[in-house]
Amino acid sequence: MNTLAAAIEARVTVATIRTWCRRGVITATKTAGRWAIDAASLAHRIAIGARRAARKAARVVYSIETMTAIGGNRWQRNGMDRVYINTWSEFAGIETTRYNTGNISSASYQGESISNSQAYKLLGSIDKVWYDDADGKLHCRFGLSESRVASRQELWETVVAGIRAEIAAL
């Protein structure tokens, strides 16, 4: 296959095909000043590009709309526009059952049973989670306690991963 046919098939420019040939990205031989491109190698390179494009398309976009869609509460005041995620513990994988008094009767973290005191410490290690529209980022305010089950930073990373997964599922 020549460079023009390869460019059309790959939906790139002829110059890109030539660069791929020179760099060895695709298998090709040069005879009499023209590139002869291996079709299987080009198909493999096209597949790699398609996977990269799919990953880029699957990137999570934080916005007021997505945060409220996953259960956040919007708050606007003095030029600030935020969405508070009050159910952050669900995104972290913390599950609790409670007595009528409000005390925890049983708890688990990411599917594994944990003690009630460790559940209280996990729940107390993050105070607030919010999305700020001004910078387009998630924020948290850490609480005073820290559990042996997971550090504050590990718990925060789990919350962010849970929020990202929930938004991707929308």
Query: Biggest sheet: strands side by side, in what order?
Result: 3-4-8-9
Largest sheet descriptor: 4 strands, antiparallel
Indicate the overall shape: elongated
Low-pLDDT parts are none
Radius of gyration (Å): 25 Å
User: What's the overall average pLDDT, rounded?
Assistant: 91
Number of helices: 7
Binned, the helix content reads 40-55%
Which structural category fits the helices and strands?
A: alpha+beta
Gap between N and C termini, in Å? 42 Å
Order of helices and strands: HHEEHHEEHEEEHEEH
Number of strands: 9
Q: In percent terms, what proportion of residues is strand?
A: 25-35%
Task: Label this structure with key terms.
single chain, 170 residues, 7 helices, 26% strand, elongated
What would you say this structure looks like, in words?
By secondary structure, this protein is α+β, with helices and mostly antiparallel strands. The two termini are 42 Å apart. The protein has helices at residues 3-10, 14-23, 39-57, 64-69, 88-92, 116-125, 152-168, and strands spanning 28-31, 34-37, 73-77, 80-84, 94-98, 104-109, 112-114, 126-132, 137-142. A 4-stranded antiparallel β-sheet has the order 3-4-8-9.
